Amino acid sequence: MTLSVARNKRYEARKLLSNDVDPAMLKQVTKRASRVSAENSFEAIAREWYAKFSGEWVPSHGEKIIRRLERDLFPWIGKRPIAEITAPELLAVLRRIENRGALDTAHRAHQNCGQVFRYAIATGRAERDPSPDLRGALPPAGYSGSS
């Protein structure tokens, strides 16, 4: 750490103390909030949901679901806290799948998202499921786009 960086950190700590904020306590609270946020990410809850229910599925079905989650959803919304994901954000992810010509996969991903959100609600980590708001937003499966 350079001297100027150390001075800036000291200045920031003194500023916090002058506002009656303990810098060490703030660091602990921030670290804890970050950990809770990671535990409540879409990916963490989806993996928990998958682990809980995949034993009831035929192995090939479970493999398709986890592959769909890992390939099509986690890269875009996996790290986001599940309670903060909005319908437009979810639609943007589903449109990415649709735009590559995988409309059936987009519909299945939509279903899987709804299942994950409902699980998050049941376990107290989300207030609502934005997936029903997207009903009709994707063309029907099998739709070719031409008349």
Automatic annotation (TrEMBL):
Organism domain of life: Bacteria
GO molecular function: DNA binding
Record region (Disordered): 127-147
One Pfam assignment: Phage_int_M
PANTHER family found in the cross-reference section: PROPHAGE INTEGRASE, PROPHAGE INTEGRASE INTS-RELATED
The family this protein is said to belong to: Belongs to the 'phage' integrase family.
Name this protein carries in UniProt: Core-binding (CB) domain-containing protein
UniProt keyword terms in alphabetical order: DNA integration, DNA-binding
SUPFAM superfamilies: DNA breaking-rejoining enzymes
Limits of the Core-binding (CB) domain: 40-121
